[in-house]
Design a protein that fits this description.
The complex is a heterodimer.
Chain A (H helix, E strand, L loop, with lengths): L2 H7 L11 E7 L4 H13 L3 E6 L4 H10 L4 H6 L3 E5 H7 L23 H10 L13 E6 L2 H5 L4 H18 L3 E7 L7 H13 L2 E6 L11 E9 L2 E9 L3
Helix pairs in contact in A: 6-8, 8-9
Chain B lengths: L1 H6 L2 E7 L6 H13 L3 E6 L4 H5 L4 H4 L2 E5 L17 H10 L7 E6 L1 H7 L2 H12 L14 E8 L5 H10 L2 E8 L2 E8 L24 H9 L8 H8 L32
Parallel strand pairs in B: 1-5, 1-6, 2-3, 2-4, 4-5
Antiparallel strand pairs in B: 6-7
Helix pairs in contact in B: 5-7, 7-8
Classes of the chains: A alpha/beta, B alpha/beta.
Amino acid sequence: MFPELNNLLNTTPDQAEQGKLTLLCDAKTDGSFLVHHFLSFYLKANCKVCFVALIQSFSHYNIVGQKLGVSLTTARERGQLVFLEGLKSAVDVFFRPQEEPHPLQFLREANSGNLQPLYEFVQEALKPMDSGEAAWRCPVLLVDDLSVLLSLGVGAVAVLDFVHYCRATVCRERKGNVVALVHDSGDAEDEENDILLNGLGHQSQLILRAEGLATGFCKDVHGQVAGSKLCFGSRSHYCMVHDLN
Amino acid sequence: MLESLLALGGLVLLRDSVEWEGRSLLKALIKKSALCGEQVHILGCEVSEEEFREGFDSNINSRLVYHDLFRDPLNWSKTGEALPGGPLEALRALCRRTDPGPVTIALDSLSWLLLHLPCTTLCQTLHALSHQDSCHGDSSPGEQVHVLGLLHEELHGPGPLGALSSLAQTEVTLSGVMGQASAHILYRRPQQRPTHQTDPTTHLTFNLHLSKKEREAKDSLTLPFQFSSEKQQALLRPGLSQATSHIFYEPDAYDDLDQEDPDDDLDV
């Protein structure tokens, strides 16, 4: 995790808040560093993490995680991390009997369908522990990323419904956290993505936005991170410009 | 400001954005209604009941009835806890509620309903919901139904926004500048019907009035081309009246009547 981000958010793994939806978005830059930050942050905070990783392979996240001080392999082996590797399991969908439910079942359907199987996977992965197993701090769902679901043909309302159910179960019922990355299409006028981004914006307690610098590319400073926190009905803003390489 | 927003009754639309959220204003209006002794029904789609009730004291909370569409709106859990019939049936059930007295219905949010229901169905149901006082014949004019709808502007196109806007008696748009929130309020007052008609024939320099005798003469006048039963009889019995017409012509000195060529006198 990046200490500078912790300072910006005024938090540490020991003091992680619970019951929150955090929206990560990026515009004209790659915001995946925010995903790596929160993955290592919550693993260090001793939370049980369900990571729906649709963009990169397990080894990619593991390599970056090791640079940030966590081992995904170890976390997975001891049951702290449930990892859905989208790139690998997407292929499995087509080589198994249709009756067996699969989290990425929507890939097989002609209509855009809904994400209920994916929600049921998350619900199962983060269900409360039996008394015999190690107690984790709180459940966390991390998604990288939601925009790719739109590219795969799922409608914006279906993605919002999926996040709604995850919020109801993970945040409200089990007092955990949900962190999801959505790309901001900016001037590209992607209506579905705008509905998704704004819809999630209304539901989020914290919005972290990574943007490229307005002045263009710079060798030393990669961009800026702007934060917006919902507190008692109003949003407070803060901004950080840094080299997060 | 809160009293004026609730004064007109009908649908009050609260338009907010990610930057300027409107749920606090919705809760303030609910609190105001509850303090006035109204019962408040909330159709909660976006936040849990626990989260919504935060900030209200027990006196206010006892007047709030929360219809929970947050926990399982699409019946995915199949535990039987979901509201039967889904969001549309939950909304229609609010129309059918029969408790007496003034009531406020809060929809949190209209955006969620608009994303999950067809716009026309939602508009029809909203119209029925906000005009309930005209359906109950025995309710007094003072018992209004207030419908408060929270709408996230950025999620909808101009068509649905315009349709909802036309249904609203009051519209509040939240915005702000430099960290200071502001609300733009639009009232649509019902059109005043005239209580009396002024007589346009007064104060004229000429007389348009008829005396009694003039009026009788006017009413008894038979118009020349009006097909009355007398005229019909006259035409059906040609023998009784003059059947042929005859032209009596007296030629003067300048006429040169030539039966062979009647138009010979024309200089053509």
